[in-house]
């Protein structure tokens, strides 16, 4: 297999788009790239404790160089990550990420979305997830799924708006399972 750094990032043209969120700067959605290590690190370390808990399902992570490298160096044959970026003071700033990782059988993929605290509630998470769903459909996945903290009402509401079937996890009542048929 190719090393992660050798995996080609898909051509930006079909994946990139710009839009104006409800309130704020113009946002560009594009593939997350290996050279996004610095903005990914700033993004992850800038998340509030509450957002980290929601994104990591209550778990704690140690933010290491290897962890950040893994987030930005993707095997595009079975995973994808879309970045929402804005230009602030002449520099690109990462404000949201949506990603999926395909299962070994290639029929389903697990998704995750996180938006920086200051940018939540502006439609960015929805736009990221809609674009990620479209990409997963194009790649031929039949199902997209994710686990969401049962207390993460914003993400649960978004999943329902995008027609995910949401139910409490059968083994862990602190989690909800969101499933979307893509085919």
Approximately how much beta-strand content do the residues carry? 25-35%
H/E topology pattern: HEEHHHEEEHEHEE
Overall morphology:
globular
Percent of residues in helices comes to 25-40%
- Gyration radius, rounded: 16 Å
The largest β sheet comes out as:
8 strands, mixed
Low-confidence stretches: 1-7
What is the residue-mean pLDDT, rounded to a whole number?
A: 87
Structure report:
The chain is of the alpha+beta class and 183 residues long. 29% of the residues lie in helices and 31% in strands. It has helices at residues 12-15, 37-46, 49-55, 65-72, 124-138, 153-161; strands at 17-19, 27-31, 79-88, 91-102, 108-115, 143-149, 165-168, 175-181. An eight-stranded mixed beta sheet has the order 1-2-3-4-5-6-8-7, sandwiched between helices. The longest helix has 15 residues, at 124-138. The model is unreliable at 1-7 (pLDDT under 50).
Short précis:
It is built from 6 helices and 8 strands; from the N terminus they run H-E-E-H-H-H-E-E-E-H-E-H-E-E. The chain is of the alpha+beta class.
List keywords for this structure.
8 strands, alpha+beta, single chain, globular, 29% helix, 6 helices, 183 residues
Strand and helix map with partners:
Elements lengths: L11 H4 L1 E3 L7 E5 L5 H10 L2 H7 L9 H8 L6 E10 L2 E12 L5 E8 L8 H15 L4 E7 L3 H9 L3 E4 L6 E7 L2
Parallel strand pairs: 5-6
Antiparallel strand pairs: 1-2, 2-3, 3-4, 4-5, 6-8, 7-8
